[in-house]
Specification:
With about 280 residues, the protein is mainly alpha-helical. Helix content is about 70%, strand content about 0%.
C-alpha cells in the first residue's frame, strides 16, 4: 500500500511540475495584461482561476489527464495566428484613428474645407460606416463649383474627380440599412446620418465611436477569451478522442468546433453604431 501511495504521489508531483510551465506562462501573461489595464479584472481573474483549476485537475488526474491538459495549454499556441491577425487589425485601426483625428481637426479649423470632408468620408468608409461616408462625401461634392477656370482649364469639381469617382462606387455598394442615425456618446442626442459634429454638444460623434474600437482593455479581453476558446476545443477534443468510442467522439469534436466558431464570430463581430437598426 505504501509503495502504491508513494508511486501515486510521485506521479502527481511529476505531472504538477510538468504543468507548471504552461500554467506559469498563462498566469504571467494574464497578470501582465491586468497590470497594464489591457484586460479587465473579471477576465483576468477568470483566466488565472482557469489555469489554477487545470493545474489541480491535471495533478489529481495523473499522467493521462495531466498530459491532455498540458497538450491543450501548449496547443493553444495554435491560436496565435488568429490572435496575431486581430492584433494587426487593431494596429491598423489605430493608424486609421490617428488619420481620422487629423481630418476632424482640419474640419474643426475650417468647416468649409472640402478636402477634410472627403478625407473623413474615406476613412469612415474603411470602418464600414458606408452611409455616413456617402452622406458626408455627397454633401462636400454638392458644393463644388463646375465653373471652368480659363487659366487652369478646369473647375474646382475637377480637382476632386478621384473622390467623386469613389463616391459613385460607394453608392453602388450601399444598402438602405447603411443610412441610419447615430446617437452621440456624450449627450445621447440622436443625430442624422453623416453627422460630423453633434447638433447638441458639438462633439465629434463618429470620431468618438472610432476611438472605442482601439481601446486596449476590451480588445485584450476578447483576445483572451478567444485564446481560451481555442484551448478548450483542443483539450476537449483530445479528451473526447481518448475517452469516447465510435461516432460519439466525432459528434462531440464537431460540436466543440462549431461552438468555438460561433463564439469567435460573436466575439469579433462588427457592432452597429448606437442609433442604427
Amino acid at each position: 500500500m505504501m509503495v502504491l501511495a508513494f508511486a501515486e504521489l510521485l506521479e502527481r508531483m511529476v505531472v504538477a511540475f510538468a504543468l507548471l510551465i504552461p500554467v506559469t506562462v498563462w498566469v504571467v501573461w494574464t497578470a501582465r495584461r491586468m497590470i497594464d489595464a489591457e484586460v479587465s479584472a473579471v477576465a483576468g481573474f477568470l483566466g488565472i482561476g482557469a489555469a489554477i483549476l487545470l493545474l489541480a485537475v491535471g495533478t489529481w488526474g495523473g499522467y493521462i489527464v495531466g498530459s491532455l491538459i498540458g497538450v491543450a495549454m501548449l496547443a493553444s499556441l495554435g491560436a496565435m495566428p488568429f490572435l496575431m491577425s486581430k492584433t494587426e487589425e487593431r494596429i491598423s485601426r489605430e493608424a486609421d484613428e490617428h488619420l481620422l483625428e487629423q481630418a476632424f481637426k482640419a474640419y474643426g479649423d475650417n468647416p468649409q474645407n472640402v478636402a477634410a470632408h472627403f478625407r473623413i468620408a474615406a476613412l469612415l468608409y474603411t470602418y464600414g460606416w458606408r452611409g455616413h461616408a456617402i452622406t458626408i462625401a455627397e454633401r462636400a461634392a454638392s458644393g463644388l463649383s463646375t465653373e471652368v477656370d480659363p487659366v487652369a482649364n478646369r473647375s474646382i469639381r475637377d480637382l476632386f474627380r478621384a473622390e467623386i469617382y469613389k463616391l459613385q462606387e460607394w453608392k453602388r455598394e450601399a444598402t438602405d440599412k447603411d443610412f441610419q442615425p447615430v446617437v452621440c456618446m456624450r449627450c445621447r442626442a440622436p443625430n442624422p446620418v453623416g453627422t460630423i459634429a453633434c447638433a447638441r454638444c458639438q462633439a465629434p460623434v463618429l470620431l468618438d465611436y472610432a476611438r472605442t474600437l482601439t481601446l486596449a482593455r476590451p480588445f485584450y479581453s476578447r483576445l483572451f477569451f478567444a485564446w481560451s476558446a481555442v484551448a478548450a476545443v483542443i483539450g476537449g477534443g483530445a479528451i473526447a478522442g481518448l475517452t469516447l468510442e465510435g461516432n460519439a467522439r466525432y459528434v462531440v469534436i464537431f460540436g466543440l468546433v462549431l461552438l468555438a466558431g460561433a463564439f469567435l464570430a460573436f466575439l469579433f463581430r462588427d457592432k452597429p453604431l448606437p442609433g442604427s437598426r
